[in-house]
Amino acid sequence: MKKKTVDKSSIAQAWLLISAIILISLTSFMLMGDIRFFPSLDLSSDVAQFYYWITETASFPFAIITTFIIISFCAFRIPRPLMKKLIPALIISLLLSLGLGQLIKVTTKEIRPNIALMTQYHLLNMDTFNHLDKSDRQQAMAQAIPKLEAIDPNIQLSSQINKHWQSTTNYAFPSGHMLFAVTLTLIINYYLIQSGAVVLPILLMIWSVLISLSRLFLGLHWPQDILAATLLSIISVTIGLYATEKYLTHSNGSRRQKSPPN
Fold it and tell me: Measured between alpha carbons, how far is residue 261 from residues 256, 257, 258 in Å?
């Protein structure tokens, strides 16, 4: 009697589906749970600093370093044929998710929670703020932050979070950090699972969740930004994997068939 073998790609697809359900469920709970993420955390505390460093792993240019470290590990853990699929799948998925995300940002023009709070205290004027260039917006933020801290003693920023607020003055919807984290996590995990790895996929999932919490607690995103980014990432990853598996595998197969026999 022959033993039934389970296709590793089927296991990876199942993992991908479960991961997507978990991420969507968590982000949906954040949206529907009416949880006050900001301002609720002392932004000068050690916990805030922890979230700051978490968020930096998905911020430019540190996101490049994060990607390089993960890809380097995968090069030792994932067989070469799968690595040849992973790279194009990741590139396609990231270009799709980040590109569409940027297009949606400039279309919806949703302001961030910290900027909304400053507007509420009349520290920023949205009629003029959004029409400023990047450097002028950053200067306006630098002037508004000390006034916000003086008005609301519960909001005190560490120097690093202060600088992060100043450098993050574009639109909020959807979260670019979450687009990057979820896309990277799902693509890497798909090929790691096929290679038999378990620990790193779990760690990457936890990292994605921490990225979402960091953006919420630091006052840089609303829950709907996180949910939209998660959904867009899942769609982009699905397209990226389909294109890679269908066309790259087909191309490789065609080349093998055309190669002359020895």
Answer: 10, 9, 9
Report the C-alpha gap between 210 and 204 in whole angstroms: 10
**pLDDT at 3 (0 to 100):** 44
Q: Which parts of 39-79 fold into alpha helices (H)?
A: 46-56, 62-77
Separation between Cα atoms, residue 193 and residue 188, nearest integer Å: 9
pTM for the full model? 0.88
For residue range 53-98, what is the model confidence (pLDDT) as tens digits? Answer: 999 999 989 999 999 999 999 988 888 888 999 999 999 999 999 9
- Give which of 85, 112, 109 is closest to 177, Cα–Cα: 112
Residue of 48, 29, 28 whose CA lies nearest to 38: 48
Structure tokens at 113: 């929670």
Instruction: Specify the 3-state DSSP secondary structure of 123.
Output: coil
Q: Could you report the per-residue pLDDT of 222-231, keeping only the tens digit for each?
A: 999 999 999 9
Q: Quick check: 169 and 139 in contact, CB under 8 A?
A: no
Contact yes or no for 187/87 (Cβ under 8 A): no
Ramachandran quadrant class, 4 (left: phi over 0; alpha: psi -120 to 50; beta: rest)? beta
